UniProtKB/TrEMBL annotation:
One of its GO terms (cellular component) is respiratory chain complex I. It holds the Pfam family Oxidored_q6. This is NADH dehydrogenase subunit K. Residues 4-46 form the NADH:ubiquinone oxidoreductase-like 20kDa subunit domain. It comes from Ficus microcarpa (Chinese banyan). It comes from the Eukaryota.
Length: 118
């Protein structure tokens, strides 16, 4: 729009401002009506933007330290014969307490808590 100082200005209610001033815009699609080539180009740009955001979110989530847990008991006991620690992760079903606990893994040697988490 060309403003020569007449009765229209960009702050007037009678002029149409860019929609990006009101809502967030990802891709601009020029033309009224837009040409098919412009539509294809806009869709391609939008797909690239979405894939880039998905990749960045995946990288960001991998960099965070996350821990997931279920109902479990952790038992550390010292072996009297070898002097090493016997560590096991025991799972108890949250629905019934009659089910015996199952040992998922056991270590016969000394293991740091960092190695158990990772």
């Amino acid at each position: 729009m060309y403003n020569n100082g007449g009765m229209f200005s960009t702050d007037s209610y009678s002029t149409v401002r860019g929609v990006d001033k009101l809502i967030p815009v990802d891709v601009y699609l020029p033309g009224c009506p837009p040409k098919p080539e412009a539509v294809i180009d806009a869709i391609t740009k939008l797909r690239k933007k979405i894939s880039r955001e998905i990749y960045e979110d995946r990288i960001r989530s991998q960099q965070e330290n996350r821990c997931f847990t279920t109902s479990h008991k952790f038992r550390v006991g010292r072996s009297t014969h070898t002097g090493n620690y016997n560590q096991g992760l025991l799972y108890q079903s949250p629905s019934t307490s009659e089910i015996p606990t199952e040992t998922f893994f056991k270590y016969k040697n000394s293991v740091s808590s960092h190695e158990l988490v990772n």
